[in-house]
Amino acid sequence: MPPLLRLLFIRLGLGLVTLLLVSVVVFAATQALPGDAAKAILGKDSADAARYQALRAQLRLDRPIVDQYTSWLAGVARGDLGNSLVGAGAKVTTLLRSRIINSATLVFLAALISIPIAILIGALSAVWHDSKFDNIINVGNLSLAALPEFVIGIVLVLVFGTAVFRWLPSVSNVDSLTPLRSQMTLFILPVVTLVLAVIPYVSRMLRASTIEVLESEYVMMARLKGLSESRVLWHHALPNAIVPTIQVIAISIAWLAGGIITVEYLFSFPGIGAGLVDAVANRDMPMVQALVLLMAAVYVVLNLIADILTILISPRLRTGMR
Amino acid sequence: MGSGDRVRQPGFLDRRVSRRDVLKGAALVIAGGAMGPVVAGCSSGSTTTSTAAPGGVTTTSVAAGAGAVKMGGHLRVAAGAGSAKEDLNIHAPALTIPSMGMRFNLYDSLLEFDPAGVLGMALAEELSPNADGTQFTVRLKSGLVFHDGTPVNADAVVYSFERILDPKNPGLAAKQLRGLAPGGTKKVDDLTVRFELDAPNAIFPEALSAYSAGIVPVGYDPKGGEGVIGTGPFKLANPGDFQPGVQAVFVKNPDYWRQDGGPYVDKLSFIEFADTTAMMNALLGGSVDYVQMIPGAQRKVAEGGGFKLLETKTGSWIPFTMNCSVKPFDDVRVRQAFRLIVDRPQMIAQAADGLQWLGNDMYAPFDPGYPKDLAQRAQDLEQAKSLLKEAGYDNDLTVKLTTSTSVSNGAPAAATVFAQQAKGAGVTVEVNEVTGDVFWGDEYLKYPFAMDNWGTRGYLAQAGFGSVPGAIYNETHWSDTNPEWVALVEEAFKTVDDAKRNELIAQAATLEYNEGGYIVYAFDMQVDAYSPAVTGAVADFSGLASAANNARYRLMSFA
């Protein structure tokens, strides 16, 4: 079996182990919190002991906690993520469907726009380092990195939504009943906010490693061979410089996918971050588990892709694998 | 209700309503109510004195000479924080503010309070009590239908109350329907029902007006958006239109029973926001037309943006609760000292941005029996210190005050202010702020010193929920050691004569004023903000749907 494929299978296996561990930890942590889903549903009425116990029995929360965990796990193995404890018994997959689609669209758009821009800015800053262009980009990057993303979001809303211009919607409460493609203006400001939050890290990382690579001997060799600067940059320097940046890109996308709760709250965007906070507050175990597993799976897969890309791009690592 | 567009006649609702007008209107509305004139001194700095008009001046007489109303449009309301656990089952408690407003628009009860606090008929046509308050006969209005076209009749009423009183799953109103047991609701004829109580209950009609005593058709058993059938001005066109925690879209009920009561808009949406910044942005950016309950600090923002404000005084209260069954609050002198620690105007200004009106350590301010002649308590640190010394504490009393933003947004701030003020009396207060799931958890009702939130109720109804022995939400446990008060309240429940009952209520409230376990420093005011294109918003005293207009969206239309 080619070594790359072997690596893939091993890592996927380890990824499954990771997900299992995450599910145990999350289950234990949520159990350790005071209260349960029955309390969340009854609210103040949970002071009425008879009703509280009756609801606990109805939600099957009176089973030993190990039982609750293993029966949930058995369901997952069958492909059934369970039913929401507080959502009138609806299936978790049904309830989460629109939130996942919303968040996935947001992440996809943000990544699609931010990564090429960041790579371009990073590479050009490195080539023209210490020039006026580079200085301006540096100041811009540092300022954006220093600002929390919701501050960026608030400023954008003020400028484009409410106070200065009224070009764009000031909130992004995507409606799950209307088709997504007719609501795309609602995505503009959240996507711009996330793009501005991600670009500084990726471009700075790329700038630093590109500067270092441009000093190396094989680049000097390529220049001496008479290759154009543009070819030197894009075909020789960048493939090596981008290796550490791929890791930063993976982390950034994972961060986006992990549910950026502050941005979701600010734009009233119905995504998985707000869904997770609500599920934890309701102690809705199946919902919490489903969302956490989704986020963990995204992390695992993105890291795997980053590692494989690194190996594929970097000839040294590829040959070193044999 | 007319059809099509008509030329708008200028009328009461057409004038651009300024904030001064709203305060004036709110003061008149509340003063005129048969619940009794509110002490003019309580209206912190209002520009007009209120005169009690006989029968009550209300602003709900929309169509009566106010001119034609433009029909149609889609009213979008921003409703505050919701959650995926919301439902539209009218007999279950509303777990979030948005879901309470939704209930008010989908269902009706037999009786109701109008915006001024006057109890009147809703689905019922007539209510006749018997001589000793053990039987109440209610006749329904004829010709009423539910959203699915089925008639509103005695069978539906019997089904509704049996459902509320189901011992396996009692509704929220079960506790309020004191004296009514399963089987006590009897059908007399197709439109008449008789409630037969096990014990006299003079305020039973008030319980019939509870929103959670809504009338539903036989077989009602909603799940999510399925089976949501009521008599309200709006209805759910498709089950999928209800997305708990996100939004709900309702359409106009063309068969709504009320004459000249709306609804005027075609669609009503409740859109839920977890963050008040996002909510205000939605209003400023034009994504919503009406925002319920804006924070006090945002009033200027809304006014500056050209939006209208609707302010009202409510009877909602956020007390400090002292547990009289544990030290140090088992000593009445400590309790009295603590009440004297509070600088009430300062607390209102600092913890609520001025959006509250003075309280006097008693609840139910709109009840006709509320004793208005008792001296308004103010801060008196010297007296507080001397009382504490008598009780044996000499600048060495330390207590823990438990609070949460789930009690109210301003509760932690009020707790902090109290801790500051307490230093002046030599008391050290540790503020312990916890999250909602912890606050309402196992320790709730056992805290020595905490806070709680209550809506507007009459005195006896409130006592029934929070103060009598066996009350479900009894934070203070004060009645355990005050049999004299318990006797007064029991007697009042049986007293059908209004004047005598109010006298008993006044005596009971005075006992609590002197020795009780609550520190009621203020009652809430509420402010809604809305687009100038919207008209018809009417101030309401109850604060129940946590909106100054009590979710009366059926009266609203686009100018």
What is the subunit arrangement here? heterodimer
First CA to last CA of chain A: what distance? 12 Å
Helix content of chain B: 25-40%
**Measured distance between first and last alpha carbons of chain B:** 15 Å
- Helix vs. strand class of chain A: mainly alpha
Task: Report the uncertain regions of chain B.
Answer: 1-65
- What is the average per-residue confidence, as pLDDT of chain B, rounded to a whole number? 85
Mean pLDDT of chain A: 89
Number of strands of chain B: 22
Count the E strands of chain A: 0
Shape of chain B: globular
Task: Name the biggest interface.
Answer: A-B, 49 and 46 residues
Number of H/I helices of chain B: 14
What percentage of amino acids of chain A are in beta strands? under 5%
Helix share, percent of chain A:
over 70%
The dominant shape of chain A is globular
Q: Major sheet of chain B, described briefly?
A: 9 strands, mixed
Radius of gyration of chain A: 24 Å
Describe what this molecule looks like in 3D.
The complex is a heterodimer of chains A (322) and B (559). Chain A is mainly α and 322 residues long. Chain A has 14 helices and no strands. The longest helix of chain A is centred in the middle third of the chain and has 36 residues, at 92-127. The termini of chain A are close together. Chain B is an alpha+beta fold. Chain B has 14 helices and 22 strands. Chain B has helices at 19-32, 97-106, 154-164, 204-208, 276-285, 299-304, 332-341, 344-352, 381-390, 411-423, 436-439, 459-466, 483-494, 498-515; strands at 74-78, 111-113, 119-121, 124-129, 135-140, 185-189, 192-196, 234-235, 242-243, 247-252, 267-271, 290-291, 308-317, 320-322, 356-358, 397-403, 427-433, 449-451, 518-519, 522-530, 534-535, 557-558. In chain B, strands 1, 8, 9, 10, 11, 12, 13, 15 and 20 form a 9-stranded mixed β-sheet that branches. In chain B, strand 16 (397-403), helix 10 and strand 17 form a beta-alpha-beta unit. The longest helix of chain B has 18 residues, at 498-515. Chains A and B meet through helix 2, helix 7, helix 11 and helix 12 of A and helix 5 and helix 11 of B.
